[in-house]
Backbone:
């Protein structure tokens, strides 16, 4: 069950699962003049995708310490309103999630269970603040957080702009942007005292009339219980089509609660 929920909720449940944290190291690092801070962040948001709906068909690979599985994922986004994710194995729908700014609903076939709730419960369960925007941002290649609302130490590491934020002693966030287009290349969120971390890396992208969209996403998460990784590759992409968002829990499924 865990692998399907992890893929279907992507950044939401992957934090709760477990995976590999990759440390970023460099022997050469130079400080960027403070006046560059605003430019880097503003340039990142100049790349904001302009769309009303987005359809993605992707291949996904789930790996943890016990198993590995390849599935397909269908992602439908109505910008800032709703996201529908379906995960299929051999053509059979194994899990589906409907995410809106106020609710998170999903069901999975293996144990015939479903969940209905909001981001408050999930955030407490996963140990990190989550909301609709963060899930949407992950899928379209924008910074997980709104960088315009934070304060960062900025350096250049391996020809990437590195932004470090440490608002809390036990919560570290780092964002890496390329120096040409200011697109997110990698972002890391960690809670060192709890041995918990999440890394999201983008390796490929494609430019459309609506803007630039990543086509390869690697999500790695680490928890004391173990590691998990999800590789997501976008194979089919279309913008601004009329999309439906069909979601209904099959009869006989048991509702679960998250404490």
Residues:
């Amino acid at each position: 069950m865990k692998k399907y929920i992890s893929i279907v909720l992507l950044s939401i449940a992957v934090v709760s699962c477990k995976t590999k944290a990759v440390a970023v190291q460099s022997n050469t690092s130079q400080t960027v003049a403070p006046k560059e801070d605003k430019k880097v962040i503003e340039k990142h948001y100049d790349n904001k995708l302009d769309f009303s709906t987005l359809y993605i068909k992707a291949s996904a690979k789930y790996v943890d310490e016990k198993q590995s599985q390849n599935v397909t994922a269908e992602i439908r986004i109505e910008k800032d309103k709703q996201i529908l994710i379906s995960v299929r194995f051999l053509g059979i729908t194994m899990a589906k999630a409907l995410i809106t700014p106020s609710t998170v609903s999903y069901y999975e076939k293996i144990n015939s269970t479903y969940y209905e709730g909001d981001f408050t419960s999930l955030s407490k369960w996963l140990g990190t603040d989550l909301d609709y925007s963060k899930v949407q941002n992950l899928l379209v290649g924008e910074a997980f957080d709104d960088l315009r609302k934070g304060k960062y130490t900025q350096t250049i590491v391996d020809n990437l702009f590195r932004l470090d934020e440490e608002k809390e002693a036990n919560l570290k966030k780092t964002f890496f942007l390329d120096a040409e287009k200011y697109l997110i290349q990698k972002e890391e969120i960690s809670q060192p005292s709890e041995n918990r971390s999440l890394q999201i890396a983008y390796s490929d992208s494609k430019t459309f009339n609506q803007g630039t969209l990543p086509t390869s996403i690697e999500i790695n998460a680490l928890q004391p219980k173990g590691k998990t990784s999800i590789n997501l590759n976008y194979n089919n992409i279309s913008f601004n089509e009329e999309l439906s968002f069909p979601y209904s829990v099959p009869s006989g499924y048991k509702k679960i609660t998250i404490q």
Remarks:
- DSSP finds five helices and 15 strands in the chain.
- The chain has a mean pLDDT of 82.
- The radius of gyration is 18 Å.
